[in-house]
Amino acid sequence: MTRILNRSACHCLLVLAACAVAVTAIANDEFEHAKKLYDTYCAQCHGMGRDGKGINSPTMSTAPRNHLSENIGNIPEAEMEKIIREGGLAVNKSVLMPGWESVMTDEEIKGMVSYLYEICCRENK
Description:
By secondary structure, the protein is mainly alpha-helical. It is built from 3 helices and no strands. 58% of the residues lie in helices and 0% in strands. The model is unreliable at 8-26 (pLDDT under 50).
């Protein structure tokens, strides 16, 4: 009987480990997808280094946000989604920040928010 329980416990642990690996792979895929979206749509202003120093930034009347700043982590998720979806003006920020709702899906916008929190937190540890 004990042997059967041990086998069951081992089987459960193996299933859980496989699930954890699968979740990590999905998370990595989502992270990489958000990174590619950032490089495509955001880096011109916010910079390839995510520091607000993109190629367009010198000619802008309002400096783009530095996404490596720990302040990013203080912005509520719903507000971050709204900024990305509707643009800066939707939250009384810069009119130069366009909305991306016609370009990114809701899932991609949520992924971008997660990506921004992640790169902010990595930089500020």
